[in-house]
Design a protein that fits this description.
Layout: E1 2-7, E2 15-21, E3 24-30, H1 39-44, E4 52-54, E5 56-58, H2 64-75, E6 81-83, E7 86-87, H3 91-94, H4 103-115, E8 133-135, E9 141-146, H5 149-158, H6 190-194, H7 204-207, E10 211-216, E11 219-223, H8 229-239, E12 246-247, E13 249-251, H9 263-266, E14 270-271, E15 273-276, H10 288-296, E16 302-305, H11 310-313, E17 326-328, E18 336-340
Parallel strand pairs: 3-5, 4-6, 5-7, 11-13, 12-14, 13-15, 15-16, 16-17
Antiparallel strand pairs: 1-2, 1-18, 2-3, 8-9, 9-10, 10-11
Helix pairs in contact: 2-4
């Protein structure tokens, strides 16, 4: 068994990874979305003999659409939840002289240090690309693809003591255009959108995002958080030097933003299943130009959405002139979409 539930996490990310035998599953939680999610309800349904153990709780970075649900979970953790390790780059991992960060980052740091092992799989140091592979209990292999050292240095500069980290402005349009938050439906010319020049995310928080390649029983999942495409692509090429790795699921970075997944990253893997995690609030993800890029680098892929909403439901029907693909949406009243690898 190797499956990933993309939990409905508002405009954020929350992924429950399950692997192993059906009668003895292992679990990994990556992010918790915002505070307004059904995370606890989903976790409760995965208890075995009344308990749920997470081999690792991964908090990719400190943005509220990833960290909010984790703060809610750890403020009042259920008695049935066991956490073997927390992977999160706190301020003391990037600024040597300081122990804690600020506001949400500070609170999460305090919650972790009071009760849980912290980055123990990495010897208590930062989770970063140079760490390479980690083998979790049950045989799941996790390869860290982001951040690299330069992105952690940038985070340190952006996370000064006693000051609030800058908000995520990575999807604010620098110049008005017809893309991104201004997308219309139908989306227009596939070829024009697919060849649209990539604009780059420059947010230090997103650049510090933990991205992982998970491998189990010859299946792979690329889970990119909000990481930069250039960093993840370079890491993939440095690990898989002889050939492009086959990937059975690609969770697209930053909820389907055109600024975080370019042709270089899409071309670095061989993948036909792509996950978009967002309810479309705030930044109106996914961007049509990214959907076009995905289709331009794959053959009849499956586009998987963890919400059926205005920004996603239109993709059920292939727009005129667009290449073929299929779609998948959550079953009603489940609170997640389940992907079996």
């Amino acid at each position: 068994m190797f499956e990933i539930k993309s939990i409905q996490a508002d405009n954020g990310d929350s992924l429950l990874v399950s692997y192993g035998r059906a009668d003895k599953p292992y679990h990994l939680l990556i992010d918790g979305g915002t505070a307004e999610t059904n995370l606890l309800k989903v976790l409760a349904t995965h208890r075995t003999q009344g308990r749920l153990r997470l081999e690792a709780l991964v908090v990719t970075h400190y943005d509220l659409d990833h960290i909010g649900g984790i703060l809610e979970l750890l403020r009042h953790p259920p008695e049935w939840l066991d956490i073997a390790d927390v992977w999160f780059n706190g301020r003391h991992h990037v600024v040597e002289s300081d122990i804690l960060g600020h506001e949400e980052g500070t609170e999460l740091s305090e919650l972790i240090v009071a009760k849980y092992p912290w980055n123990s799989a990495f010897g208590g140091t930062a989770v970063q690309m140079e760490a390479g592979k980690v083998i979790l209990e049950g045989g799941l292999v996790a390869t860290v693809l982001s951040p690299d050292e330069d992105r952690l240095i940038a985070l340190a500069s952006d996370w000064p003591a006693d000051s609030k980290p800058l908000p995520d402005l990575s999807d604010v349009e620098i110049e008005p255009d017809i893309l991104g938050r201004h997308d219309t439906w139908p989306p227009g010319s596939f070829r024009d959108l697919a060849k649209e020049k990539s604009s780059k995310d420059t947010s230090p928080a997103n650049g510090s995002s933990i991205a992982l390649m998970l491998e189990y029983e010859e299946k792979r999942a690329l889970l990119t958080g909000d990481a930069f495409s250039s960093i993840v692509a370079a890491a993939i090429k440095s690990v898989w030097t002889a050939h492009r790795p086959t990937v059975d699921l690609f969770k697209l970075s930053h909820h389907g933003s055109k600024r975080n997944t370019d042709g270089g990253l899409l071309g670095a893997v061989d993948c036909q299943r792509f996950l978009f995690s967002s309810n479309g609030r705030t930044h109106n993800h996914p961007d049509a130009v990214l959907v076009a890029r995905v289709l331009d680098h794959s053959t009849e892929p499956e586009l998987i959405f963890n919400y059926e909403q205005e920004r996603t439901s239109g993709w059920r029907d292939i727009p005129d002139g667009w290449p073929p693909y299929t779609t998948r949406f959550p079953e009603p009243d489940t609170g997640f979409v389940n992907i079996i690898l």
